[in-house]
Amino acid sequence: MKAAPDRILRTAQAAYLDRLLPPRSDVLAQIEREAKRAKVPIVDPEVGLFLDQVVRACGVRRALEVGTAIGYSGTWIASALPSDGRLVTIDVDPDRVATAKRHFAEAGVADKVECLLGPGLDVLRGIEGSFDLLFLDALKEEYRGYLLIALPKLRVGGVVVCDNLLWGGQVAEKVRKKDEAASTEALRQFNPWFLEHPQLRAQILPLGDGTGFAVKLAAAP
Fold first, then answer.
1. pTM flag (> 0.90)
2. pLDDT of residue 9
3. Which CATH architecture group holds 11-216?
């Protein structure tokens, strides 16, 4: 979910790479239009494609997402899962979850997706089972809490992907929007903690609005 239109690359470079992106499915293109019209923050298309690649390359069968929104990233993930794969996705907004369910049905992946309604931290505590992929794209102030709760549920060798770790450039520069100051400060604290976490091999990729990517190295001591 992007905080601002700023891109890591210069405008001409970003436009060039955007033109090289493969066409999205009709449903994904529709969600992009709906999100733009309703001003709902979703991941950039290149981040969606990255999620698709991660699912396929890592053999993901069970994925856990915090931040359903209207189902854009979830559609990317679920579409790449095998026929018996499962995406569990969490969001606190019932209207957005209802819209996401419609999009999952239109994309033909509804049978792979379980939508859970409620605050991310609360819902995560009640989830059981092991997952291959954890994707974080909800409240930035709660990223650390999400990861603390969910990491024990991620198998060794499983992957973590986090959106918005540069937060429109504000994390590395200055806060431009007062209402995003708390989120910016939370990300400034989260990023080094994420990169230095003893159970993760992590980095932040210059993709979209800053994409965190990590592999879980070992079970907790």
1. yes
2. 66
3. 3-Layer(aba) Sandwich (3.40)
